[in-house]
Hints:
Layout: H1 3-18, H2 33-54, H3 63-75, H4 82-103, H5 108-131, H6 136-157, H7 168-176, H8 181-207, H9 209-236
Helix pairs in contact: 1-2, 2-6, 2-8, 2-9, 3-4, 4-6, 5-6, 5-9, 7-8, 8-9
Amino acid sequence: MTAGAARRGILRPLAALLFPPGPEGRSGPHGVLPALLVALTFVSGVVDAVSYLGLDHTFVANMTGNVAFLGFALAGDRQLSAAASLLALGAFLAGATAAGRLRGGREPARTFAPLVAVQAVLVAAALALSAGGAGALPVVGLLALGMGLQNAVVLRLGVPDLTTTVVTRTLTGLAADPWDRAAVRRVVSVVVLCCGALAGGLLTIHHGSRWALALAVALLLGVSLAGAVRAAEHHGA
């Protein structure tokens, strides 16, 4: 089976579930992009499992929780590290800023694949440092930098209900709004984030964080490749 056929067979049905196909069976308004964002949501759960369970109880994707952890650490909770939380916040903001500068005036969909590829490199570097016995802080910094890139590009894409990290607002909309296609996207987003955290947690607890980071790298490379193919097809259409 070719990569293109696999992509059509796996990504398009999921994208159609999240956004209905257009007239005459054409792809929805975002093509296969929603399916790729679902994969990034899973990655967010994996890396937050690694950072919380193995790196000083710090979040690198969920900055809301990380800000709260910073407050707890400053209040005197010795299980939390104010330095790690501050580093994660700073690196996350640096990644988001860098993504904005690198994007320039170009269409967000054109920069999606390259920025996810950069994120894969950052997570791979974190994996290498972890394997080499480095301390928690450099690994936290690299992971948070990558998540800042991810969040910035996802924000610019503006695909409804698929933020890849934030679930508080997603859960609020799910409870407060009528059940419709948006509710399906919200349920998928929450469930996939939980599944990513579960997978990352199981790997980290039972086999070490390196296996969880390796899974994240593999997924990011796959998303980047699929995004590049999507951009090439869109550009050539």
